[in-house]
């Protein structure tokens, strides 16, 4: 792969075949699932250096933010829309069922 063979050459064709085989193997044995909504929020908070205070305009007062982050309160449609718009978290991730932990 480091040599970056040209497409259409024997080396390029071999790399293409190997890449296809790796993709098929990963799709079968290591499927990537969508993250849990709360974990996605926590990840974005960590990525962006956000605090609970920063989420208040999006989710509500700090006690409501803590309830959501501790899985005591589900996300509402309005919260999902604001999280999607403000933090760029995909809406399909936010509407998924939250896993109880």
Task: Give a structural overview.
62% of the residues lie in helices and 0% in strands. The model has no long low-confidence stretch (mean pLDDT 91). Helix 3 crosses helix 4. It has 101 residues and is mainly α. The protein is built from 6 helices and no strands. The N and C termini lie far apart (41 Å). It folds into 2 domains: 1-32; 37-94, lambda repressor-like DNA-binding domains (434 Repressor (Amino-terminal Domain)).
Describe this protein with a few key phrases.
mainly alpha; 2 domains; 6 helices
Spell out the blueprint of helices and strands.
Layout: H1 10-29, H2 37-48, H3 52-59, H4 62-69, H5 77-87, H6 91-94
Helix pairs in contact: 3-4
- The CATH architecture of the largest domain comes to Orthogonal Bundle
CATH superfamily caption of the largest domain = lambda repressor-like DNA-binding domains
CATH hierarchy, class of the largest domain: Mainly Alpha
Radius of gyration: 20 Å
- Topology as a string of helices (H) and strands (E): HHHHHH
Q: What is the count of distinct domains? A: 2
Shape: elongated
- Estimate the mean pLDDT confidence: 91
């Amino acid at each position: 792969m480091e040599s970056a063979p040209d497409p259409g050459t024997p080396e390029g064709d071999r790399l293409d075949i190997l890449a296809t085989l790796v993709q098929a193997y990963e799709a079968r044995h290591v499927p990537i699932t969508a993250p849990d909504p709360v974990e996605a929020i926590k990840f974005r908070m960590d990525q962006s250096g956000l605090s609970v205070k920063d989420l208040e305009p999006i989710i509500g007062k700090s006690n409501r933010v803590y309830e959501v982050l501790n899985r005591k309160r589900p996300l509402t449609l309005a919260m999902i829309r604001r999280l999607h718009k403000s933090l760029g978290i995909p809406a399909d991730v936010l509407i998924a069922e939250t896993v109880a932990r």
